[in-house]
Amino acid sequence: MEKKRKIELETLNALKEKKMSEVFGDKGKKEKKEPKKKAKKQNQFNEGIIIQVGECGTKSFIKKSSSGKKNLRKIFNVVVFGIFLLMAGIIWFLFVEYQSFRLYKTKNKEIVALGKKYEEEQKMKAAELKDLKNLSLDNVQNVPEDKKNLMLSIIPSGSPLLRELFVTSPFGERVHPITHERKFHHGIDLRVDIGNPVVSTAIGRVSFAGVKGGYGNVVIVDHMYGFQTAYAHLNKILVKEGEIVGKGKIIAEGGSSGHSTGPHLHYEVRYNGTPIQPKNFIDWDSKNFNIIFKNERSVPWEYFLTIMGKN
């Protein structure tokens, strides 16, 4: 019994030891394995840190690279825009210069054309001067008859009245009949009855028709080549400003308007604005064609004779 109990105790102890050994043996193994696991975990942790650090560095590098690219793009865009502005400025400058050149070229053509025209005019004047050597005031009768009549129709000639002439005050220095002052009389006064017809002495255009100070009712007619006639102290005006009148056209009625001592016509002939002796033009007609050239020397008649003498 005791042996049996002893054996059972030994068996039980053996089982205990076995169990203990198994228990402690597994723990030791675990303790041995744990450092490896810890080392592995540490390595994994370290690797994770390295990876994270690497990722951060990569991200930082990527961010820096992306920022650098953006800066490069900005710089590139600024440079391209600057080049564009420069090219636009150059193109605009060239355009302005081209327009200036075209304008200069056009003006230059006009100057050249004017120069040619001036040369032609000088040649014509030279030819006219040559003709004048052959056409003097002594042989004005050589002017063709039709040219004489034309000249008499475009330059004031003949009487401004349809009645017999009677001069009441001549052209030149005189004592004014109203103010009694010595003044130059720029026209000639012809006796009229109120209502007598007054006619234009040449073809022309009415430049004035109305009241003019002491002259009363006045008509002024502009003729060719700088000639002008004036008719004053009229009773009634029968034309309007701007109207074209022919030689012999009735333009007014004689009267005594303005500063006047009685009915009369104040008649003036002007050349380039200067009053000249109207009696010379009143006496000028086809029968006495050369009389005007001898008596009125203030007009360059040679020029008109040259024009009229050409066939």
TrEMBL record:
Residues 20-34 have a biased composition (Basic and acidic residues). Keywords: Membrane, Signal, Transmembrane, Transmembrane helix. The keyword Nucleus does not apply. InterPro entries: Cell_wall_metabolism_enzyme (IPR050570), Dup_hybrid_motif (IPR011055), M23ase_b-sheet_dom (IPR016047). Residues 20-43 are annotated as: Disordered. Residues 183-278 form the M23ase beta-sheet core domain. It holds the Pfam family Peptidase_M23. The chain crosses the membrane at residues 75-95. It comes from the Bacteria. GO terms for molecular function: metalloendopeptidase activity. PANTHER family: L-ALA--D-GLU ENDOPEPTIDASE, PEPTIDASE-RELATED. This is Peptidase, M23 family. It comes from Pseudoleptotrichia goodfellowii F0264. The lineage of its organism: Bacteria, Fusobacteriati, Fusobacteriota, Fusobacteriia, Fusobacteriales.
